[in-house]
Design the sequence.
């Protein structure tokens, strides 16, 4: 197992698109142990005073990309093929979550070889895990607390455990305050947190480094397919593609920053087949004027307004 700053998902086109910005990452702050709240506040104030100015253009690392390790990542779904809300009970995208857990375990240090699954709906059953992830089955720890308060308490306490490298949890009804708290705990203790959130939370505010939408996609074979949409990157997470689409506000959930097509493989789990399907990374639809204006401005190199112009 390797110890890197990024967790490579194993989906080549995804890892080539997102990475870490050097200007915003900086040195990682060690986990606070034995500090009083006043001393912790002084350290935070000193870090803010020494932080690079926000007007400085971030420099992108040349190392392989992926999800930032020690951050919060949210996955909304499962949605219908057209992005519609499911009519039945919410079902998390366990196939995608299992692949991310396997990737986090692969890039973890030897002393942090445990993956925690928290929540009544988060069930790492053998059918949802890749067959080649034999280490994941033995390294998994399943926690099923009862109640929302107990679930968030278990998530925070597990993030503080030095033996856990990744937490896959049910993020239903996560408020912005709780999201910010969990994000700070994950960053301080260098533990990756992946929250699976139901489609009804798509308009909820969050402090996650990345937010994704998982939709069912029509398939021509016997294996299911999903459309993976990147809705937002923030903080240390940045787009690093050679010609990435423009980043839109998080409130614009009708269109995504990037889109990929995944297909289930019984041995390796979800595989990236975006290059085999030309419509998976098509240009943005002209039906959304704000996204199309930003896309054309990005192509021409001219700045575009982040908000649409309102007419009286």
Sequence:
């Amino acid at each position: 197992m390797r110890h890197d700053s990024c967790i490579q998902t194993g989906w080549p086109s995804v890892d080539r698109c997102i990475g870490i910005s050097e200007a915003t990452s900086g040195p990682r702050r060690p986990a606070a142990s034995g500090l009083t709240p006043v001393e912790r506040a002084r350290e935070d104030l000193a870090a803010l005073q020494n932080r690079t100015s926000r007007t400085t253009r971030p420099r992108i690392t040349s190392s392989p990309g992926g999800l930032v390790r020690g951050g919060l990542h949210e996955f909304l779904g499962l949605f219908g093929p057209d992005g519609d809300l499911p009519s039945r009970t919410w079902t998390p995208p366990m196939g995608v979550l299992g692949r991310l857990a396997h990737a986090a375990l692969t890039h973890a240090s030897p002393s942090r070889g445990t993956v925690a699954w928290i929540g009544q709906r988060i069930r790492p059953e053998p059918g949802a895990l890749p067959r080649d992830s034999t280490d994941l089955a033995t390294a998994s720890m399943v926690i099923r607390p009862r109640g929302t308060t107990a679930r968030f308490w278990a998530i925070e306490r597990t993030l503080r455990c030095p033996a856990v490298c990744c937490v896959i949890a049910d993020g239903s009804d996560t408020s912005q305050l709780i999201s910010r708290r969990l994000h700070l705990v994950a960053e301080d203790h260098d533990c990756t947190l992946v929250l699976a959130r139901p489609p009804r939370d798509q308009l909820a505010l969050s402090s996650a480094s990345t937010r994704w939408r998982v939709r069912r996609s029509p398939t021509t074979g016997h294996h299911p397919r999903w459309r993976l949409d990147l809705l937002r990157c923030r903080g240390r997470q940045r787009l690093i593609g050679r010609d990435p689409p423009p980043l839109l506000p998080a409130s614009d959930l009708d269109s995504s920053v990037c889109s990929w097509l995944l297909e289930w493989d019984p041995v390796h789990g979800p595989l990236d087949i975006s290059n085999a399907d030309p419509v998976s990374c098509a240009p943005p639809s002209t039906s959304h004027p704000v996204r199309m204006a930003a896309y054309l401005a990005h192509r021409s190199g001219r700045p575009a307004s982040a908000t649409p112009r309102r007419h009286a």
In short: The helical segments are 12-15, 22-25, 37-49, 94-106, 134-139, 148-159, 176-188, 289-300.
